[in-house]
Amino acid sequence: MLLRRALLAGLSTTVARVPLVQPLRPRALSTMAPPAKVIYMAKNFAGEPKPTDFQLKEEQLPDLKDGEILVEAEWMSVDPYMRAYMVRYPPGTKMIGGQVGKVLVSKNKGFQVGDHVVGYLGWSTRTIVNPDSTRGDMTKGDLEKVRHLDVPLSYNLGVLGMPGQTAYFGLLDLCQPKAGETVVVNGAAGAVGSLVGQIAKIKGCRVIGFAGSDSKCEWLKKSLKFDFAFNYKTCNILNALRESAPNGVDCFFDNVGGTMSSVILSQMNLFGRVAVCGSISSYNADMKDPPLAPVVQPSLVFKQLKMEGFVVSRWRDRFAEATDQMHAWVKEGKIVYQEHVYEGFENMPHALIGMLRGENTGKAVVNVSKL
User: Which GO terms describe its cellular component (predicted)?
Assistant: First the structure.
């Protein structure tokens, strides 16, 4: 069930008075874009992002040039990587992120008015982009048409989008799980982790998840059919693994980092495989004094582990493969997908902060369709 977190304030419009009689003259179809609301990072984040770190502006967009399209956002995504990536940019930078939207105006032969598209257009209600010149650049738009219109559009930001592609390639290409093996995933109730565990079950694996609340763990076991799920805030990680994986761990999909990950590595089997997707435990930390974790080299050396970090854009040319397979699994009922929905563009900062705190079970998305 979608969770509603806030209500979008109503908008008022003012109609300008004009003379009753005006001279008739021919008019060309205008390519002038309507105003856009844009959210910027007003100052660099220090620790957990705060509402005062963001600035909302309304901006007039220019006329479209040949090759460009105007996209109006309908759904937006908030993801952990936004906190980590924004460290690279100066204050005054538009917040990065993915969105699903509709083409309002097109001067590109490949896109028609009314087409639904998904891309990295950032925190802007309306965006002008040239799909041809930004293709493959996930920092400048990288936009394409929605492939599957028989599921909710918001799915293209989750199970059929970046999180689904991340789970698919990170687990299958890097960990290469085999039927009967034991797979551990932390951040298991999030957008990526919840999909990793289900793909592992499809492949015939024993799946163990770590999440941040008892209710999330119940969801993982009852709805997603994880074999075991533990609340990392209240359990002893080592004892939990000894209970659930007495014969050791073969594959580990790491979203979190820190002490928990070091403990899991200590329980890996010989020639185990580790895919390092993220380090959300440290995203709000001061990198001038980074947090420390137990040493991992003994586990890597003596267990001869293969441990590889990755960014999903390396598989950009194969995204369609992942999207189509995830779509098939959803339609077949093999993957259960849940969203945590926030309402309203103005609530984007709240949604990001809430997601980083772990408010969401499943994928956090923001409905901005009522502009």
Answer: cytoplasm
By the 8 A CB rule, do 91 and 44 touch? Answer: yes
Beta bridge partners of 194: none
Sequence-ordered list of residues with C-beta below 8 angstroms from that of 41, at least 6 positions apart, any chain = 53, 54, 55, 86, 89, 91, 92, 93, 94, 95
| 87/90 Cα distance (integer angstroms) | 8
pTM value is 0.89
Based on the domain organization, do 212 and 281 belong to the same domain?
Answer: yes
Range of 344's domain?
36-156+338-367
149 and 174 part of one domain: no
The count of structural domains within the chain is 2
Q: What is the pLDDT along the chain (371 residues), one digit of tens a residue?
A: 333 333 333 333 333 333 333 333 333 344 566 799 999 999 999 999 999 999 999 999 999 999 999 999 999 999 999 999 999 999 999 999 999 999 999 999 999 999 999 999 999 999 999 999 887 666 677 899 999 999 999 999 999 999 999 999 999 999 999 999 999 999 999 999 999 999 999 999 999 999 999 999 999 999 999 999 999 999 999 999 999 999 999 999 999 999 999 999 999 999 999 999 999 999 888 878 888 889 999 999 999 999 999 999 999 999 999 999 999 999 999 999 999 999 999 999 999 999 999 999 999 999 999 86
Distances (CA, A) of 280 to 164, 251, 285, 341, 356: 18, 19, 10, 21, 8
Task: Let me know: does 252 contact 265? Beta carbons within 8 Å.
Answer: yes
Contacts of 128 (CB under 8 A, 6+ apart): 33, 61, 62, 64, 68, 69, 70, 71
Q: Same domain for 50 and 137?
A: yes
